[in-house]
UniProtKB/TrEMBL annotation:
Organism: Pedobacter westerhofensis
Pfam families linked: NIPSNAP
Domain NIPSNAP: 162-265
Protein name, UniProt field: NIPSNAP protein
Source domain of life: Bacteria
InterPro entries from the UniProt entry: Dimeric_a/b-barrel, NIPSNAP
Length: 267
């Protein structure tokens, strides 16, 4: 009887070990969790509005978002002398889930410290608009780079160049083809290899220009940016990838904006 009990216990242990090993393998093979990004764009008309939005973001909004649990908030403006009638301030937020995306708005509505420190913005009258309009773009991270990366620079923030690109496609099928070019064709790997510091790559889930994707690469200055893009354009892997018949005509419109981080931006 003792021998039979030993055999039974041993068999049970073997089965448990096999099940545990299988579970570990399945867990290890799970794709990494993806993030969601929200790019908020304030359209402003003059210096007065710019100062009011700056004060709200730096003193009230960014600290409130930090309290919510989002530790890295990017805030940017157009590089160079902005003479455009429609000036912009960009805010990049990162979420672990769409639930967090929804809950942040509710949390900010009831945040007493935000209401106090951002009073001029929060309680602005209809004839004292702090901005012309506010735009929001919701994205999901690429499978090839599921997490936001904070760039590392030693120089002053005003010297840096953050390049924001948007690629639109003529159809949803061609859009998916361009996504495949980044993820499966290793277009992102080329950026990494030549030293372009990517912050994020995002599939646009909701926005005013669709279907499209957006991504941001960063450089110490404009000279560095030009050198990196020259290296990208002459890279053998890029030349091979861009010449592949299956990846032709998958971008119908591209937009490029050069941004600089504000002093109160987290990166």
């Amino acid at each position: 009887m003792k021998y039979k009990s030993f055999i039974s216990i041993a068999a049970t242990l073997i089965l448990l070990l096999a099940a545990t090993t299988f579970s570990i393998k399945v867990y290890a093979q799970k794709p990494p969790a993806k993030q969601f990004y929200e790019l908020v764009i304030y359209h402003i008309k003059d210096k007065s509005q710019e100062q009011r939005v700056d004060q709200y973001l730096s003193d009230a909004f960014v600290p409130a978002v930090h309290r919510f649990g989002i530790k890295t908030v990017g805030v940017f403006k157009l590089a160079g002398i902005d003479t455009a009638a429609d000036k912009k301030i960009y805010v990049l937020l990162t979420y672990k889930s769409l639930t967090d995306f929804h809950q942040l708005s509710n949390k900010l509505t009831t945040d007493k410290e935000l209401a106090l420190k951002g009073k001029d913005y929060v309680d602005a009258g209809f004839d004292q608009m702090p901005y012309l309009r506010k735009e929001s773009i919701l994205m999901e991270s690429f499978s090839g780079m599921p997490m936001l990366r904070t760039p590392k620079f030693s120089n002053a923030k005003p010297e840096r160049v953050y390049e924001l690109r948007s690629y639109e496609s003529a159809t949803e099928k061609l859009y998916r083809n361009k996504l495949s070019m980044f993820n499966d064709g290793n277009e992102m790997a080329i950026f990494d290899r030549i030293g372009s510091q990517a912050v994020f790559y995002g599939e646009v889930l909701a926005g005013s220009h669709m279907p499209n994707l957006m991504y941001m690469t960063t450089y110490a200055d404009m000279k560095s940016r030009d050198e990196h893009w020259k290296a990208f354009g002459s890279d053998p892997d890029w030349k091979k990838l861009s010449a592949m018949p299956e990846y032709q005509h998958n971008v119908s419109k591209s937009a490029i904006e050069f941004l600089v981080p504000t002093e109160y931006s987290d990166f």
